Amino acid sequence: MSLEMNQNVTIQLTLAEALILSDCLGRLNAGENLAQLVDNAEQMALWTLDNRLEAWNPVIFSDRYDKYLQDAKSFITRGTDE
Question: Following CA atoms 40, 45, 49, 51 in sequence, which dihedral angle do they give, to the nearest 10 degrees?
Answer without folding.
Answer: 50
